[in-house]
Amino acid sequence: MEQELKNLIDGISPIDSDIFQKAKEHTAQLVMPPRALGRLHDISERICAIQRTLRPDVSKKQVIVFAGDHGIVEEGVSAFPQVVTLEMVRCFIKGGAGISVISRFVGAKVMVVDMGIIPDFIPENQEEKAIFKEKKVARGTKNFAKGPAMTRNEAVQSILNGFNIAKEAISNGINIIATGDMGIGNTTPSSAIGCVYTGESAEVMVGPGTGIDQEGIKKKIAAVKKGLDVNKPDPNDPIEVLSKVGGFEIGGIAGCILACAYHKIPVMIDGFISTAGALIAKALCPSSVEYMFAGHKSEEPGHIAMLKYLGLTPLLDLGMRLGEGTGGALAMNIVDAACHVFNEVMTFDQAGVHEKEN
Amino acid sequence: MEQELKNLIDGISPIDSDIFQKAKEHTAQLVMPPRALGRLHDISERICAIQRTLRPDVSKKQVIVFAGDHGIVEEGVSAFPQVVTLEMVRCFIKGGAGISVISRFVGAKVMVVDMGIIPDFIPENQEEKAIFKEKKVARGTKNFAKGPAMTRNEAVQSILNGFNIAKEAISNGINIIATGDMGIGNTTPSSAIGCVYTGESAEVMVGPGTGIDQEGIKKKIAAVKKGLDVNKPDPNDPIEVLSKVGGFEIGGIAGCILACAYHKIPVMIDGFISTAGALIAKALCPSSVEYMFAGHKSEEPGHIAMLKYLGLTPLLDLGMRLGEGTGGALAMNIVDAACHVFNEVMTFDQAGVHEKEN
Asked: I want to staple B233 with a disulfide (CB 3.0 to 4.6 A). Which of A62, A118, B54, B241 is the partner?
């Protein structure tokens, strides 16, 4: 199974530097001062290089929300009871959550994947079956403050499950995917993964998540420290990192990112948990980062260190800290606007406008 | 005529604090951790208080691009020849400019207003007539480095023209307006207005605009300094400020903002030039600021000082510096998303999700 993952990773190539250059030449002709739309140009040019085209297109948008439960909640790290993971999945499927609304607004489909929720969600009709995918690796991770969160095989399986779910969406014509997450307690494994890769301390990496108080933050820092101490994950072995201090939905996100890179479409990373998945993806395949866009800067304080490590600048900074994929979904609109600018703004010649004098 | 303007300003009231409070209570019930979507909540609640409703709606979007020419270009302050003002207006109307594309993308109508272009644009068909409005106050301003840019009457006229154009759009059902500008040389009067209100020096306020070099920036700083020195505009008399160092499109933008406040709809301020218009609007009517949203942080270095003076935090920061209304148009999408979240996300009760434990 690990060989299967290795083969997929070997199939990932860097983005196309020739097309990147040609895209820059196109931007230079647009009827505006040089690069006057700033990052919109950077975005559209990179999409060109990702999609190997000078007609970048992200009109077929998919949000994939990976959900899982976490043994670490035993340590008192979350403000919400564990049953909320399933309850929120139900809410996503009913279309009433933040991610449901923002996805509808940006014209993105939503898919919700059970990567390892403790109870089962049973879809009741065709509509629910179209949104919900069951890819359960196990019924929640183990408490990583006491030992590995999952087996090495389970870690590989979670990445492959994420890969395959994304592959299926892409084969249906999707040309951009935003990653999302749901899992009570999942800022704690994300913090641990953040510590492993950025080298920051648990004190820097841990934040209030869904809104724990100072006492809760102390417990959370202690849990992360204990988890790192007990498990001693090796950063050079990202599967080990995921298995020792990760989560099933984090593995799913990593796999989803790798699938986007493999299939040459852009992937929009949401906030703290999705970025933890991106850290695993980068460690498995450094060039996967070229396919990533950072949707937004989360309010979770450790997020910025993770983004810095990845070398990504977030598109939005709106004080959001919900997860679910909300920041990524909203940012897909910016990326789409950038592609429209690239494709539709006239050149100086076409518009009959005088160019700069000096 | 000045009395007419005064009467309109007297008709502007602050936003509704009761509805603001009720909107906050609604947000607190949404199925997510408290205020987890950050500024999206702040935005939707303010729209409620602006529109006097708990069903905020910004689906009917209008971008109004105010265009004018500037005598100050004699001082060598712009990288583009003056004829480009008209050429770009033509491009807006053909639908090929940055603002055309971004407006289409966000579902906003575009209107282009000749507030004082030197040559005339003659619309050729019904379609062009629907987009283009002729409200010419004069054929370009005078060189304000040598004396007032316009008469006091012309300043009042430009504000009233902007007011009336926006009023017409609102009477057609528009529920959010983004301001835009076109005018070769117009970062120079905007810088001068910025100096008057923020108290910053010309050195801080002046930037490269459409892309002048260091030599050009020196000329531009000198022009602003000369203009302020020759005209000595009194900040307590915003009509005087506009007449002495302003522009017709800047007056139009100020009037448009006042009309939005008068008619209780939100107004999205674009970048540097639009924000200069907002400074005039604020000086005429301080509570008009409550109706403003700052679309984005322009790359023009003086912009942030203006925004700080207004007390507005920009929604986007994407390195844009095109003007035309592009930053405002793109940001209307964020505001629209915020309203959808407010209206469509379920409450904890509706979703059947457990609330926070502590």
From this structure: B241
Q: Does B214 touch chain A (CB under 8 A)?
A: no
Q: Residues A147, A283: one domain?
A: yes
Structural domains of chain A, count: 2
Residue A229 in contact with partner chain B when CB distance is under 8 A? no
How many angstroms separate the Cα of A234 from the Cα of each of A97, A308, A347? Answer: 37, 20, 52
One-character DSSP codes across B196-244: HHH---HHHH---TTT--HHHHHHHHHHHHHHHHHH---TT-HHHHHHH
Q: Which domain holds residue B147?
A: 61-337
Residue of A31, A97, A212 with shortest CB distance to B345: A97
Q: Is A173 on the interface with B (CB under 8 A)?
A: no
Sheet strands (E) in chain A: 61-68, 108-116, 132-134, 176-182, 267-269, 292-294
Amino acid at B223: A
Are A88 and B40 a contacting pair at CB < 8 A? no
Query: What are the chain A neighbours of B211 within 8 Å (beta carbons)?
Result: 33-34, 356
B28 and B111 in a common domain: no
A340 contact residues in B (CB cutoff 8 A): 101-102, 104-105
Q: Is the pLDDT of residue B284 over 80?
A: yes
Is B129 within the bounds of a domain? Answer: yes
pLDDT recorded at residue B356:
82
- pTM, entire model: 0.97
ipTM computed for the complex:
0.97
* Residue A358 is assigned to a structural domain of this protein: no
Starting at the earlier edge strand, list the strands of the sheet with B176-182. B132-134, B108-116, B61-68, B176-182, B267-269, B292-294
Q: Residue A68 — pLDDT band, cuts 50, 70, 90?
A: very high
CB B89 within 8 A of CB B66: no
Provide the chain A residues 305-324 that lie in CB contact (below 8 A) with chain B.
315-322
- Is there a contact between A356 and B213 if contact means CB atoms under 8 Å apart? no
pLDDT of residue A356: 82
Q: How confident is the model at residue A309 (pLDDT cuts 50, 70, 90)?
A: very high
- B322 pLDDT more than 60: yes
Residues A34 and A123 in one domain: no
A346 CB within 8 Å of a chain B CB = yes
Q: Give the pair of three-digit tokens for residue B120.
A: 């005339």
Mean pLDDT of chain B: 97
> Which residues of B fall within a CB distance of 8 Å from A356?
79-80, 210-211
- Can you give the CATH number for the domain in which A223 is found? 3.40.50.10210
CA-based nearest distance B243→chain A, Å:
28
Spatial contact of A207 and A187, defined as CB atoms under 8 Å apart? yes
CB B178 within 8 A of CB B63: yes
Would you state the pLDDT for residue A358? 53
If asked whether residues B138 and B205 sit together in one domain, one would say: yes
**pLDDT tens, position by position, A204-254:** 999 999 899 999 999 999 999 999 999 999 999 999 999 999 999 999 999
Query: Residue B111, SS3?
Result: strand
Q: Where are the beta strands (DSSP E) in B43-192?
A: 61-68, 108-116, 132-134, 176-182
Give the mean model confidence (pLDDT) for residues A72-80: 95
Domain check: are A29 and A149 in the same one?
Answer: no
Q: Which residue of B has its CA nearest to A355?
A: B80
Nearest chain B residue to A40 by CA: give it: B318
